[in-house]
């Protein structure tokens, strides 16, 4: 019997001869990440455990992104200072302050490599699975214990194989793939499972597209979401494919479910209020009036996403009375987007461009919604009150849908433009 990708990665890290679903394995995570929301809680946990040193400070990174800029007093006096204090006391040199969103930095900096085990104090840590990295979120107490001992146990999850075939039509993106899947398996369909992606269409997906899919797999409750590695993966991390080509699905691996999708038949999808798995095709939703459009987040703030939107917006103006907010995922993305003219395009179209941070996605500054306001966002969640008051409404869509809708002021199918 062969192994699923999650079984292979956990087995290799734990140096086990064999693993099966439900087994408990003790791993030594290759990288641990904490972002600024949780630094103060981590500091408290470390003090209670009387931790004097980290097992390996070089395997740790602290990233300031959710509270940048500081929105309320405690963001600065508590979260910010706690992160600095942890870095100083325990010798953490991988410190990123105001450089962008943690999950984007993790793969951009090569901290979450294919075939490794990575954990972080955030749910969307599943993002790095786009490169075949086992990555999942943990709490601050678990993080404190792992930083101290260098070890963390996992129960080996069962897995769902998702086979992607065909080619995406014009105007349909990777965001539409994962939203279609979420609509099918619902918000609990991947609970503590590994979603594992394969099929002929995967080779055509960019790394950014794969990260988008893995990012939002979390919304189905997934423990991780893994793509098979290929030349694109190796090139992205400047690695030789022979080092990581074992991160693939065995033909005789046992999966609890297999889902198959023909991407050539896919149309733009939207997650509608008030839940990510409330998914409808754009033909059912188009024409809905909007007050705001948000392009950004760790889901769709990459250079590729900005390029897609800029192509649609070039030489045009956003609708009157509509707020169009753009937040590049990282400083690297921001600077490259400036060079390529995307930022100029957004500004000339009437957009508001912010420095890289989580911003509106986690309810921080930049465009918080008032009662009865409606937004089309490229982020990953549309929970009640996520981006403003409890009476605001959030639709989730791709960068193409976001740009097209910004032009018209209503939810618009980019294929119609």
What is the assembly state of the chains in this entry?
single chain
Which class do the helix and strand fractions yield?
alpha/beta
How many strands, which pairing sense, and closed or not: the largest β-sheet? 5 strands, parallel
Helical amount: 25-40%
Percent of residues in beta strands? 15-25%
Separation of termini?
50 Å
User: Using only CA atoms, what is the Rg?
Assistant: 21 Å
Q: pLDDT below 50 for ≥5 consecutive residues: which ranges?
A: none
Give the strand order of the largest sheet, numbering strands 1, 2, ... along the chain. Answer: 4-3-2-5-6
DSSP strand tally: 18
Mean pLDDT: 95
Overall geometric form: globular
Count of DSSP H/I helices: 15
Keywords, separated by commas or semicolons:
15 helices, 18 strands, single chain, 417 residues, 5-stranded parallel β-sheet, globular, alpha/beta
Structural summary, described in words:
This protein is of the alpha/beta class and 417 residues long. The model has no long low-confidence stretch (mean pLDDT 95). The chain has helices spanning 5-14, 39-48, 73-90, 102-108, 140-149, 174-185, 207-217, 231-236, 241-244, 282-285, 297-300, 303-313, 331-339, 342-348, 399-408, and strands spanning 24-27, 31-35, 60-64, 94-97, 117-120, 134-137, 152-155, 158-165, 193-198, 224-227, 257-262, 269-271, 279-281, 292-296, 323-327, 352-353, 374-377, 393-396. The protein has a five-stranded parallel β-sheet with strand order 4-3-2-5-6, with helices on both faces. It has a five-stranded parallel β-sheet with strand order 16-15-14-17-18. The protein is globular.
